[in-house]
Amino acid sequence: MVKVESQSGLIAFYDILGYQQMLLNNEVEKTAHLIVDVIANIPAEVIENLLGDQGLPVKEGLKMAQYMKQFWQKVFKEEIKWLLFSDSILISLPLDSSDDKFFYAVKIIAFLHTCAFLQREMFDRGLPLRGAISSGDFFIQDTYFAGSPIIESYQASESLELSGCVLTERTAKIYRELKDYAVKFNFESIITLFDQLCILYLVPKKGGKLEKQLMINWVNLPMNFFKGLPPDIREYVFSSFVEYNKDAAPIVYPKINNTETFIRKILKNVESKPWNMWSNQRDDYLSTLLKEKNMEF
Predict the structure, then answer these.
(1) What's the CATH number of domain 7-286, 2.70.40.10, 3.30.530.20, 3.20.20.80, 3.30.70.1230?
(2) pLDDT tens figures, 220-232
(3) Which one of 3, 26, 112, 289 has the largest count of C-beta atoms within 10 Å of its C-beta?
(4) Strand-pair partners of 140
């Protein structure tokens, strides 16, 4: 009998908009290669960008930077898991609530950046996604999976009438708590990160419904992989929805319009500010923490 062990953590569920049309109008090998190529390269590309541009490499005077660099890489390479099936992408990250808040926050930040990168990279390649991130207990083994956060993220994703990714209420609560934690310890640059990583937005949903939720900012985070958008936003959005010989049927136009509106909202109202996860203050905090808990990597 197979041993079933559940985990608790984050689940992101995505589906690729227009995927069935793409399969019908193109060779299967071409479309499959595009998707697998993006997913296979995400961990390395995210690590390269975050470690290269966000102050994560070892710097003089930051004793814990090397430790945290290894921790960061471990999260991407070993803890964040990917599952691709048909037109859907499932990403998971187990979390331990007994972890110190700082390490707990770092893992969640890594996960959200992975989702933001996936969304932007796929959109730029003409593969717009809609998705949702939930939290709770789940089971994933090989191609088998179960758990309320998987169902919840699937249902939340299916309700969206645009290309984007929302945080369910449980996940949004975790996000708000982590931001409060950063405020408590005056981690200014991490507060800056939280202000632009997820944005409160009036989300358009099926049936003409609107709901205010946190959404992943996949538009203008200050990372190398978030290149500047072309001046013609309408053409940029429209091209992604019709790339690979996909049809822009009337039913698709609300998603195109809503996605364009979201992008314009972000560009107009969310300032892209560089952030640095590490500082002398946080170096001292981590040094004390590791000594108190006798923690080893």
Answers:
(1) 3.30.70.1230
(2) 987 766 778 999 9
(3) 112
(4) 145
Distance between CA atoms of residues 141 and 67, nearest Å: 30
Exposure on the CB side of residue 77, measured as CA atoms within 13 A: 9
Domain spans of the chain, in order of start: 7-286
Residue 122 and residue 16 in contact, taking contact as beta carbons nearer than 8 Å: yes
Query: H-helix or E-strand containing 178?
Result: helix 169-184
Q: Can you tell me the distance from the alpha carbon of 44 to that of 149, in angstroms, rounded to the nearest whole number?
A: 27
The strand ranges marked E within the chain are 7-16, 81-85, 88-94, 129-141, 144-146, 165-167, 198-204, 210-216
Let me know if 291 is exposed, middle or buried by CB neighbors in 10 A (0-12, 13-18, 19+). Answer: exposed
Global confidence as pTM: 0.88
- Say if residue 22's pLDDT is above 90: no
Which of 84, 199, 82, 91 minimizes the C-alpha distance to 135?
Answer: 91
Please check whether residue 72 is in contact with residue 50, taking contact to mean a CB–CB distance below 8 angstroms: yes
Question: What is the Cβ-side half-sphere exposure of residue 120, based on CA atoms within 13 angstroms?
Answer: 24
Tokens 């314009």 belong to 264
194 contacts 116 by C-beta, under 8 angstroms: no
Of 215, 211, 190, nearest in space to 270 by CA: 215
Mean pLDDT along residues 50-67: 53
Q: How far is CA 177 from CA 9, 54, 182, 189, in A?
A: 15, 23, 9, 16
| Local structure of 246: helix, strand or coil | coil
Chain centroid to Cα 218, Å, comes to 8
